Amino acid sequence: MKSQHTISNIDPASFRIIYDLYFEPVCVFLSYYTRDVAAIEDVVQDVFVSLWEHKEYLEIQYLKTYLYNAARNRMLNYLRNRENRIALLAEWIKENETVEASPDCYDMEEFSVILRKAVNLLPDRCKEIFILSKEQKLTYQQIADYYHISLKTVESQMAIALKRIRKYIASFLA
Questions:
Q1: Per residue in 40-56, pLDDT tens?
Q2: Class of domain 1-76
């Protein structure tokens, strides 16, 4: 039995109403997490794209709660992923400072190539999970649901991936 608050079968007209009603308030809500307007708008846009793409499968009891929670979770994932990239870059810079005469100039293309090689050396499932998390921006829970595995398995695979990537980058720089 569906409550009167349950939303399902979203059509283009109702989606437009939802978008117009909630886009700005959700952006304001995310400004508590970051002041990066572009990141906020990207995250909120992703939430609405996901809502539209999964409209046939979703039965949302409280739309506002769903949108705010989805936006918060995506923003936290975005910030975590950004921090991971910053940490990898900081490690790269630290290693290069001892090698390079000019610490002000770093080759981001070279770093990207090394990072891509490190990712490609991961075991298949580990690599797939890493890519879904870092490049596709899926949450760990979404990845667990996609592969029908536990959240702990996803966390474990991500820990393995990050450890191996850091080790590869460090060994490459040695």
A1: 898 999 999 988 888 88
A2: mainly alpha
